[in-house]
N-acetyltransferase domain-containing protein
Amino acid sequence: MVQEQLDYHIREVTLEDLQYTDSVVKIVNEAYQTGDSWTKARDTFDFDVPRTNAEEINGLIKENVSNKKTHILIYVFDTTHKEESVIGTLLANYPNDKGESEFTLLSVAPQYQSKGIGGQLMHCMFNRIKRMGATTVVLDLLDNRIDLVAWYKKLGFIEIGKKEFNWRGNTIAGVSSLLMKKDI
Ligand SMILES: CC(C)(COP(=O)(O)OP(=O)(O)OC[C@H]1O[C@@H](n2cnc3c(N)ncnc32)[C@H](O)[C@@H]1OP(=O)(O)O)[C@@H](O)C(=O)NCCC(=O)NCCS
């Protein structure tokens, strides 16, 4: 069987991308929730809580193109066929006065994972925020997400501490947030 070559393109969102919001919500929630992701959280979190919704995504797109911009929202598009589709997302905040930039909403649609796309998306984000003055990228994640922690370490992140895990008021007994950073 001949495998079709995958072409993809990574760029910051524009207002035109409001048309993709429904599929973006699906991709993010599937990547975070279904357990189809190879980096899935194991056993400990109620992933029936959707990670995002259309209102949040539309708000982020509109803010992304406004003068009050505080973040960049980046999409990955599958451009193999004439009709392009969104297959990945990442949201990075503008750096604070210490040059630190946080990111969130990192997702690659489960059927597109393990092809190097997530790594490319991260490198694209590093380049963008560096140009905006960032010197360090920081994140926190569940300390029991062993696969994901190893993935971030491969990208050059190091562990810098732990704090109590609390996502929208949800805490989990015995699980903490692991803080990681990478100098860029
Ligand atoms: C985290 C995520 C974005 C990674 O995206 P991805 O496109 O699958 O990642 P990549 O293909 O770029 O990763 C490549 C590396 O990861 C590792 N990897 C990829 N697939 C793997 C698998 N199935 N098992 C183990 N390691 C794997 C390999 O080490 C590979 O490195 P190599 O090129 O040196 O072999 C994606 O899994 C995802 O959307 N997860 C769910 C949402 C989430 O948890 N987001 C982060 C919240 S903090």
Q: What stands out?
A: The pocket of coenzyme A is lined by residues 31-32, 37-39, 106-108, 113-119, 141, 147-148, 151, 154 (CB under 6 Å). Residues 16 and 114 are 28 Å apart (CA to CA). The beta strands are 8-12, 71-78, 85-93, 100-108, 136-142, 158-164, 176-183. The helical segments are 21-33, 54-64, 117-131, 146-154.
